[in-house]
Design brief:
Bound molecules: ligand 26V
Number of strands: 19
Distance between the termini: 36 Å
Strand order of the largest sheet: 5-6-7-2-1-8-9-12-13
Largest sheet: 9 strands, mixed
Number of helices: 32
Length: 753
Amino acid sequence: MKSMDKTLTELCGNDIRYCSYEEVYMALLSLVQKESEKRAVPATGRKLYYISAEFLIGKLLSNNLINLGLYDDVKACLEFHGKSMAQLEETEPEPSLGNGGLGRLAACFLDSIATLNLPGDGIGLRYHCGLFHQNFTDRLQDETPDFWLGGHDWARKTDITYPVSLAGRDYTARLYKIAVTGYEGRTNYLNLFDLDTVDQSIIGKGIQFDKQEIDKNLTLFLYPDDSDDDGRLLRIYQQYLMVSAGAQLILDECTRRGSDLHDLYDYAAIQINDTHPSMVIPELIRLLCEKGIDFEEAVEIVTRTCAYTNHTILAEALEKWPRHYLDKVVPQLTPIIEKLDAVAASRTNDSSTAIIDSNNIVHMAHMDIHFTHSTNGVAALHTEILKDSELNHFYKLYPEKFNNKTNGITFRRWLLKCNPELTQLIENLIGTGFRKDASQLEKLADFTEDRKVLKQLASIKYDNKLALAEWLKNTQGIYVNPSAMFAIQSKRLHEYKRQQLNLLYLIHQYFEIKAGRLPQTPLTAIFGAKAAPAYTIAKDIIHALLVLSTVISLDPEVSEWLQIVFIENYNVTAAEKMIPACDLSEQISLASKEASGTGNMKFMLNGALTLGTMDGANVEIADAVGDDNIYIFGQSSKQVIHRYAQGDYCACDWYEGDPNIRRAVDFLTSEEMLFHGSQEHLTRLKNELIRKDWFQTLPDFNAYVVRKNQALADYAENPIDWTRRSLINISKAGFFSSDRTIQEYNRDIWHLG
Ligand code: 26V
């Protein structure tokens, strides 16, 4: 502590007591940067490049201090001088460089790769505003820019630049580097590219800007609105900037390390995170050919070097671009893509695997599967669905390429950092070995009958609920009852994730309570979710939940038993407060649609019980904890896939045939709701549910009500048993460490070092 005090005082240039939080923060930033550089050792052998349009890294200060082993010292030193770590954290802006699971996964992976001492960097874009900031105005979402850059950030500007040609014009991509510290491990880097010419002043109302001024707008936002042609073109511009600069960086580094490029795969493994970076394949081929390698060999080199991860089976999310878009933005690539299409066609007569289809649409995922050596899904069920249905034609062609890598989460952020009290309890019980070997959490099974331990665990949960309540009061002016059961659904707003099913349940409970059928315990339903700015129904669902929240809060008969809290601007920082305080984790997607989910793992690790469908990694969570320690409901993925194949689902039959469903759906446009809400939004949502309900909310409604009420009753009737089951969940969470996931990627795909 003494030497830390001295170091910090020196860096601050003053007694810490008299420094502002801002000054202390800047001092720590430079300390961490210095310390992390010491651990940046040059790569030997094969090095990984994880290329991704999103890296949802969250705030970095505390995480880096933990990973560098400095956290406790710094905290003690600050406290000695009357300053708090929590307040210091407020100083740091959160870089929201991702939408949701895919981006957060990339961030967890970087942490694990460095922790496991593997050489591996990320490659992405330096978005100036990242994902939008969500505000609720008149109970509707609107969006404003989130200016997270401003001298406080972790990205170091470098002198390294690469030329990139977009629509025939030359641009200069500049490299910024963020150090990625491993937990007691090495330092790797997140390489982010940007243009010097980007100009934040062109942002107009909300998050609008001129989509044609490429030099000024290119990296302003993550995934700008793609509801029109200009927006979609801009996505291609962004993607090409990332992959072209990224490919040049990779070839440069490998050449410097001794590669003659014929042996590129001995120096590099490239993981393509979903289809956003897929153009790296033709771009690498183009660059290799420019350096004198012939086309066939270049294809072979790239195929051996690259691997592809699929993160969704949703047709609308599998990127397909009209050929003329690519002709316009990347004319240098289209001849190569055409040649790749011809090579693919020479391997099979099956036109469904074509890269360029008969309508001149380019299928990015198809290019990935043909021209990488590995295609993986992100949970066991997801991979099986890819093999059996969505990508079955490819599986028949290349069975050896397909493999599963069930997702994981870094325990450093999602336990050590966000839940220090639980971490301490675990360490008192089983020591610290689990920090680097998560499977050791199994040892907690020895304590499931130990009442003293269960009481401690229950009191930690209660304290975390109090802390969330305090945070909600301070940041959003919302008061919650910490003795109620906290059921949390936090994730992107999407119809397949079915926040609308939760909404219908809450309306149902409203009626039950009004009819005097009271639950055994009060329930606080907490939501966190952003809707894509152009996704109308998703915004309608947010509106309905916000309106219902008001209706309930103004009705004293109901509000004693039921409360809805919709947290504004859900992000990594909010997640870190919510997850440790959760009793019941809502994972209620339509079976077969959620590739994996990773929030489900974070909640489980922090002792929540899951209420979920047999979807994504929920299936593996259910296998791990056993039927008694999870609440499963709803149609199976087989039933859902069958229903889609039959094409005979008619929501109106369910609406008309079931009085409870009808009552809940009709309430959306009731007088009570319209008093606070918008007729347009609520009517549209109601009609959508009755006329379409593409994600089959209504068939799962009754099963969901029964299971959720069962959970409420169990929670109220036998709290000690609930805590026992919570401990079982924690003890079985080890499998979901991203360290395990990365070890599997390395064993089967990357072979690093
Ligand atoms: C993208 C889009 C973009 C166009 C409009 C509709 C739409 C819907 C979904 C998506 C998802 C893109 C891929 C993605 O984020 N997948 C998520 O990846 C996580 C990490 O593997 C996984 O846990 C989630 O289940 C999966 O949804």
